[in-house]
Specification:
binds zinc ion; single chain; 225 residues; binds D-xylitol-5-phosphate; TIM Barrel
């Protein structure tokens, strides 16, 4: 993965047809998705359950580009190698998932994957400063994690602006996750974000039989910024 700050749309397959992940991944990439975002939930760190490493491994051959795995699990370190072996290009862990996020980011990089650091809406940015040299992506949660289709939390736009200033010239992506639509995307891109996760806003109205709707939805987000 080479670093650049161009806008990337990362559809979350949390909003895809769960009986058809392979075809859904192929469809969104064919319709202009840049990355594929996989939301891993454990029913403990967040009140919902989704994909284990075996599912990620099964999906991997259907993704040509970047597989972006967002771990909403605690403990997290136990599972890093399994998701790396499943083919994740980016592995993101939450700052709130345990006391040793520094070690977690080191462990992610040791697998060869890019290391992502996610922040819940209630978390400040002070703790990020001493983690910057270990971080390839900061994921700003603009909803409380656990479910798709929630409303964007506007107070996070200021957080994005502050993080962008803190990052300076370092090659670190700012990813936005939750409530991204053509209405909210321009706010976070203006504040410095370059990766937009979007679940419901990409998948709504479409299907593998009507993939052109995914394309329209992706283009609507791109055109809004
Ligand atoms: C929330 C997940 C998000 C979510 C986004 O816990 O991390 O990736 O699926 O869904 P939308 O775009 O529908 O808010
Ligand atoms: Zn996510």
């Amino acid at each position: 993965m080479t670093f650049d700050r161009s806008l990337k749309i990362a559809p979350s397959i949390l909003s895809a047809d769960f009986a058809n992940f392979g075809a859904e991944c192929r469809a969104i990439e064919a319709q202009g998705a840049d990355w594929v975002h996989v939301d891993v939930m454990d029913g403990h760190f967040v009140p919902n359950l989704t994909f284990g490493p075996a599912t990620c491994k099964a999906i991997r051959p259907h993704i040509k580009g970047v597989m972006d795995v967002h771990l909403m699990i605690a403990p997290v370190e136990t599972y890093i190698q399994a998701y790396a072996d499943a083919g994740a290009d980016v592995i993101t862990a939450h700052l709130e998932a345990g006391p040793h996020i520094h070690r977690t980011l080191q462990a992610i990089r040791a697998t060869g994957a890019k290391a992502g650091l996610a922040l819940n809406p209630g978390t400040g940015i002070e703790a990020v400063e001493y983690l910057l040299d270990l971080t390839d992506l900061i994921c700003v949660m603009t909803v409380n994690p656990g479910f798709g289709g929630q409303s964007f939390i506007h107070s996070q736009v200021e957080k994005v602006r502050k993080l962008r200033a803190m990052i300076g010239d370092r090659p670190i992506h700012i990813e936005i996750d939750g409530g991204v639509t053509p209405e909210t995307a321009p706010l976070v891109v203006a504040a410095g974000a370059d990766v937009l996760v979007a679940g419901s806003a990409v998948f709504k109205g479409g299907s593998v039989d009507r993939p052109e709707v995914y394309g329209q939805n992706i283009r609507a987000i791109r055109a809004s910024v």
